[in-house]
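User: Here's a chain of 129 residues. Predict its fold as tokens.
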Amino acid sequence: MKLLLDTHMLLWSAAGTLPQEAEKMLVDGCNDLYFSPVSIWEIAIKKSLGRDDFKVNLELLWRGLLDNQYHELPITSLHACALNDLPMLHKDPFDRMLLAQSKSEGIMLLTSDSILRKYPGPVIYIAPK
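Assistant: Prediction complete.
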């Protein structure tokens, strides 16, 4: 199965603090793991705002994801167009783009965001620890 991790899942993965259910999915060799530049962008913005939960070295995170066989999913115009089809259940532009990417590409979005799980489509919700 193809899994696109949302931003918090990526941060928890890097910190080794994933919920157990998510950890099992990530170590399953049958799953292909993806991350989006949207998450890197979100971390950069929230880190610059001084958010304590977004303190991470972005270059090390990015390199670590690639070194651990994560695939980078580029943002395309098709993904931007897919935003038109999403109901406004969630107002966070980063999460909406991650969902648009997952829907467009047929990739499951792995998230702990309770609002994202309300969308129809490829979302796997895992409660945070």
